[in-house]
Amino acid sequence: MICSIIVLIDTFFNYSSLEQIIASVIAMGFGIGFLLNRLKYNHATRLYMTFYPPTIFMLLIFLIGGFFGQAVGFATMAFLAFIGFRNNPKMRIIIITYDILAFIIPTVYIQIYGPLLGVIEIPYDEILVFIACLGWLSLIFRMYDETKTRTYTTALELNNKALKESEINLKKAQIDLKKQNKELAVLNNELKLKNKHIEEFTFIVTHDLKSPLNNINIIAKELQYQHLLADYTNFDSFLKHLNDSSARLTNLVQGLLKYAEIGGSSEMETIDINEVINVVLDDLSEKIKESNAEIIVEEMPVLIGKSNDLRMLFQNLIHNALKFKSSNKIPRITIRSVKVPSFFQFSVEDNGIGIAKNQQDNIFNAFHKLHNHAKFEGSGIGLYGSKKIIDHHQGQIWVESEEQKGCKFHFTISTNLIEHNTIEDPI
After folding, report:
1. What Cα–Cα distance (Å) separates residue 190 from each residue in 50, 105, 184, 324, 345?
2. DSSP bridge pairs for 224
3. Which of 58, 201, 212, 383 could crosslink 245 through cysteines, CB 3.0-4.6 Å?
4. Looking at residues 351-373, what average pLDDT do you find?
């Protein structure tokens, strides 16, 4: 553009009016192309700079004749059309055809008839064509590169956006999958416990209930036999055995009913253990007053668990501590908790009669009783049920004890339990 202006100024001072007009038209034409480019009308600039130069060159050949620089210019314009319109094959063919015809037709014409205005030398014509070719090349390549770069950048941004969305969706899917796997692991654990407890329950029903039922049947037949003989010598003894067996059977049935409630009586939820223990202490308030027991409860945590089951657990342990108290000591029960990795660990400690070493491995078995039925009533299901409750909370339960020095029951509850996730207990 600058060179065309310099040539225009020189032409006005040193050349004829016709040459001045031609230089002005060329300078004005390139000026329009420059203005369109500065205004960022890329498509209009490309079309204008594609059609304007060959049209001007074609007119110049008709008017004043041709020269070698014009041939180079036409070849350059055809090449630029091939590059600039590579994404539009039809337009590219039209422009290249136009460039070829714009050179061949006027050249053939002047060879036959000569230029319309005669042969006129344009000042600096070779320089003008050279600079014009460089200008066209730089302009078209820059526009093409900008368009291509913009296209690639836009595509890259879209791909990055899609990739980020995919990454976010993948992370969400992974989180959901981990949660589902965790829930599935809990459900599988629950299912294993249910199957185990069904087997245990079946064994209990088919074995432990037989003994009192057999006693009742035998005593009923004996009473019937004595009634026929009118012999009532052992009548009172038989009635006593009958009452004992009936009471034992009642305790067993009640124990089974409580056992059946464990695991299916409530869902996993957020529980304040302080409130659970307060409810248990209210339920046992008469026994506590009767024994003048001292109950010490340290700060308890808030955790995920089954409210009814945990209430039954603490009730079993506190009730046992009150029941198996020492005859020469005021009952003292201390309840503590501590947070350890992945678990809450609790302890219920008393100063009662304790448990012999050889019995400590059996106390969590079903219907296992350490003491005489007559002296300590109960079904023998309390600690067995406590173990079942702890199983449902993915923990463990054990005891430390010395005879006549008391017991210290420990149990843990997992911190990885999930709210509102339970399987109905089939028992």
Report:
1. 79, 93, 10, 33, 21
2. none
3. 212
4. 74
